[in-house]
Amino acid sequence: MGNFREKLQRFMYGRYGNDKFNMFLMFAALVVLIISWFTSRYISLFAIAILVYSYYRMFSRDYAKRSAENTKYINITFRLRGFFARYKKMWEQRKTYKFFKCPSCKQQVRVPRGHGRVEITCPKCRANFQRTT
Fold first, then answer.
1. CA 17 distance to own-chain centroid
2. What's the pTM?
3. Domain regions of the chain by residue span
């Protein structure tokens, strides 16, 4: 078993490997493959093409080009990932904090729970509003 691992490491030396864009491509291929089970079989060819491109990227020796593709993917999905990360953090803090939007500027404000009716000052526009925590 150790011999196989060593051969694989030697084979992958100097190759690009896996990254976030590759993981997205593999997930997209899986989704397209599942969709093809319920629709036309020709859609599965599209899933295979995505997988072939994913493996091409993984085994590529053109590190700069693959890195630029990954950076472009990360920049395109930055806002979307930030949106989900923000709501994930809010979900984790839902038992200890309550979240309100400022009526003036729509800035989100986090307030500890269990303090009754409090006056909140928006950190962005300095507007005051009252809410029950």
1. 19
2. 0.63
3. 2-76, 95-132
